[in-house]
Design brief:
The protein has nine helices and 15 strands. Strands 1, 2, 4, 7, 9, 10, 11, 12 and 13 form a nine-stranded antiparallel β-sheet that branches. The chain has helices at about 5-20, 40-65, 110-195, 200-230, 250-255, 255-270, 285-290, 300-310, 310-335; strands at about 65, 70-80, 85-90, 100, 105-110, 340, 345-350, 355-360, 365-380, 390-395, 400-415, 440-445, 460-465, 490, 495. The longest helix has about 80 residues, at about 110-195. α3 packs antiparallel against α4 (about 200-230) and α3 (about 110-195) runs antiparallel to α6. About 20% of the residues are buried. It is α+β, with helices and mostly antiparallel strands and about 500 residues long. β14 (about 490) and β15 (about 495) form a beta hairpin.
Length: about 500
């Protein structure tokens, strides 16, 4: 090249002249070393893949899952309290003991309540004896009433006899009247003959005496007629000078003796709660009304019903029923001395010891349910539009971490946020309101939960993940509201109340 250095050429020619160059030897070609990958590059790639994985996963979850970290386990709690006051004799459980429904927890001293039961039992025995005595008294009243009934029949028969006597006395009166007429005529004839000296004074005196006897017999017969008419309740003389033998119809129903017998019968019957529709009924109408109490006019059935409805028996039975109710209440109070658990669960907050005097309603301990477990998840109001009843939920707990995931299902939404349901809700009408995203409690039921295998402790934190893209299932699926609660019909006497069959639209 024209641009080569002249000094280098001179040096080369000079070296060739002084020493001949050796023959060139073929040199071995050394292998090129492999380029090493940088560890930082590998770590960066791995981290990038991990970041992309979790970013993709988070993106997918954000599109199909709604979650919150503000959730906790909850359950029903039953507070154990006595129904009667008394002194504690035994406490059979302690905190954290597991109990079954019906298991004895606390025993009160039963002696005072046993004495009360004995007193009430004695009252029931007395009331039972009173019912027996009342039944006997009613049967006696029935016998007395039947006797009064027979007296009424006898009084009617006597009226019939009295009517016959009136007719007989009237006939005797007619006979005496005829005798008097004959005696008067013979006396008048004897008087004329005495004046003409045809008859003797002795014969005249006989005729005069016969006339006096006939008059006396007539007057006596007339008085007998008057007496028999008065006995029938009739006037001494008929109105307008009528026939003395004339007697009104149905006199056997209106005669004083019959009315008196009827009054005695009604008085006895009134004690059996047997009354008439009117006080002016005749004996015949009263008897007919009595037999009409039974369609078949069966006297035995009539008296059977009368005994059943008798006031004396009713009153005794009412006292017996009251005594039996008092006894039942005393026995119930005695049974309340044994305080039992109403649910299956675990004892907490025990604050009672033997010897304590407890009052009605005093809290002795609490029993937390192990089976009726659910999760209260407080979702943001911005998440609610995607939530519905019946959506499946994965429940991750801090207790078990990722080792155990429980399955759940949304079962309902609380009708208000925590701020509105607080004891002192926020007042936003003062002009200093600052909008804060509210949270609404959502209830999530735990499915196929078995506390004997993996227990969920009440109050522990849960992270629920709601699969919003899955189809809601179960009751009221897809809605916000549950249906109206259907109350069972409660029968009281002949009235049925409390039944409601309306259903709300989810």
């Amino acid at each position: 090249m024209s641009s080569s250095n002249p000094s280098s050429k001179e040096a080369a020619s000079e070296s060739k002249e002084t020493k001949p160059a050796p023959a060139p030897q073929p040199a071995a070609v050394a292998p090129q070393p492999a380029k090493k990958r940088s560890p930082k590059l590998i770590i960066g790639v791995v981290l990038g893949v991990v970041v992309l994985f979790f970013a993709g996963r988070a993106l997918i979850e954000s599109m199909s899952i709604v979650s919150t970290d503000d959730a906790y386990v909850n359950s029903h709690v039953t507070f154990v309290a006595p129904r009667v006051e008394g002194q504690v004799a035994k406490v059979l459980v302690d905190d954290n003991n597991r109990v079954h429904a019906g298991q004895l927890l606390v025993a009160l001293d039963p002696e005072p309540y046993q004495k009360e039961v004995d007193i009430k039992q004695a009252a029931v025995d007395v009331a039972t004896a009173d019912v027996v005595a009342a039944d006997a008294s009613v049967h006696a009243l029935i016998g007395q009433t039947r006797s009064a009934r027979f007296k009424l029949d006898q009084a009617i028969d006597q009226v019939h006899n009295q009517v016959a006597l009136v007719h007989a006395n009237v006939a005797s009166l007619d006979s005496a009247k005829a005798t008097l007429t004959l005696a008067q005529e013979e006396f008048d004839r004897a008087k004329k003959l005495l004046e003409s000296k045809v008859t003797s004074s002795e014969e005249f005196d006989q005729k005069q005496a016969a006339l006096s006897v006939a008059k006396a017999q007539y007057n006596q017969a007339l008085e007998n007629v008057h007496e028999s008419r008065v006995a029938l309740g009739l006037p001494v003389e008929p109105e307008n000078g009528g026939d003395l033998a004339q007697i009104p119809d149905k006199v056997d129903q209106t005669a004083p003796a019959v009315r008196a017998a009827l009054g005695e019968l009604m008085q006895d019957a009134a004690q059996l709660n047997v009354t008439t529709s009117s006080y002016n009924l005749t004996p015949e109408e009263v008897i007919k009304e009595f037999y009409n109490r039974d369609p078949s006019h069966d006297i035995d059935k009539i008296y059977e019903q009368i005994i059943k409805d008798a006031p004396t028996i009713k009153q005794a039975q009412a006292k017996l029923e009251s005594a039996q109710k008092d006894l039942a209440q005393a026995q119930l109070n005695l049974s309340y001395c044994n305080i039992v658990s109403e649910i299956d669960g675990v004892v907490t907050r025990r604050n009672v010891n033997p010897g304590n005097n407890v009052q009605v309603g005093q809290s002795l301990m609490a029993v937390r349910s192990l089976n009726e477990i659910w999760v209260d998840a407080n979702f943001k109001e911005t998440q609610l539009s995607k939530l519905r009843i019946g959506q499946p939920v994965d429940l991750e707990t801090d207790v078990y971490g990722t080792k155990k995931t429980f399955k759940g299902r949304i079962s309902g939404f609380t009708m208000g946020t925590g701020s509105t349901l607080a004891l002192l809700p926020a007042q936003n009408a003062t002009g200093n309101f600052v909008k804060v995203v509210q949270r609404l409690p959502v209830r999530i039921d735990v499915l196929d939960y078995d506390p004997d295998k993996d227990i969920l402790f009440v109050g522990t934190s849960v992270t629920p993940k709601v699969h919003i893209r899955d189809e809601p299932t179960g009751p009221n699926a897809g809605g916000f509201l549950q249906p109206y609660t259907i109350q069972p019909a409660v029968t009281s006497g002949s009235t049925s109340v409390g039944a409601q069959t309306r259903t709300a639209n989810p």
